[in-house]
Write a structure and sequence with these properties.
Rossmann fold, 2 domains, 7-stranded parallel sheet, 6-stranded parallel sheet, 44% helix
Length: 389
Amino acid sequence: MKISHISLGRYHHFSLCRLLHERGLLDTFFVAYPQWKLKSESLPLDRVRTYPWIWGLYHLRLRCGRSGDRLNQHLAFYAQQSLSRFAANRLSSATALVAMSASGLEAGRKMKQLGGTWLCDRGSAHIQYQDQLLRDEHAKWSVPYTPIDPRVIERELAEYEEAHAVLVPSEFARRSFVQQGVSAAKVIKIPYGVDLHDFYPGGDRADGPFRILFVGGVTLQKGIPYLLEAVSRLQGNIEVAIVGDTSLMPRHVLRQFDMDKVLWVGKQSKSEVREWMQRSHVLVLPSVQDGFGLVMAEAMACGCAVVASHNTGVHDIVDEGVEGFAVPVGDAVALADRIQALVDDPALTRRMSEAAIARVSRFGGWNTYADGLIKALAEVGGLHKTLVE
């Protein structure tokens, strides 16, 4: 088996491609990053083909605050389409293709023509399910919503239909596909891994306040208002750190909440995020929609308990009451109750911390994810060949 891979950005794809290369299975990695940004990623650069032009311009305009205008919407769409076409014109010796959703339609069709296997890798819920959740959430907070580009939805629906299988990282994501009418047999769930070289226990939680941590984009999708409301209900000596880019969070929403206990840290490097995780008692992820909150596994590796909404993949890595708690989406009262239970019971927090470290150590890191992917490709490819014959 020789596997080609397509991804616009890092996500989990860089870790996967490194492992596939180590196992002698990587044919070509097609990515929208410029070559110079890949030199520190330990990727096999002789196996990497880059097409960064449109995606790079899109991100440049993002940094200039142009995230929601029509030009950037067009750039995002054409970046996905052009990367797929770039890969389609260069597929040759690979026998399988794993392509990030919306970025693999043309290349996937080419792989099928070559007689190979194509998996559509979707890191979130079904795109129409996701779009509706976000539309409803923005309406709830009276925030204008920019719908997902209909052209992107059309591309993804075609990929779901034409790919041999759809790869998702959580039970929440899997259920969203089934609810949208995709055959359960076509949806393969493989939870993401965690790099235990980058995330591990350390620091001192014994002294000072009870530390609550959020890591991620500060957006309505991540459930930030529910976190802030929950924090306002908490009693005791607590400290709340929100690590992430705040530029997309509507100010009129934030002004509704008391910020006295909240420390806005901003975006941090990987090593700085690790240090925050090592110093914190609990990671809170109250997302409205998160295909798999990878920060949960990373925080667990650092010894954090987890409190997360049902729509994060929490049920795939946390047993209720053992490593953390799951709460209903949008329920700030339940979120506060679970956090308060940890604030009030240091022994419970310590047990969950120890259980979290033990649970993550059993994941097997990204090797387990790679094992699952290779097995899925072999099974899907074998079934496809049997049906063709």
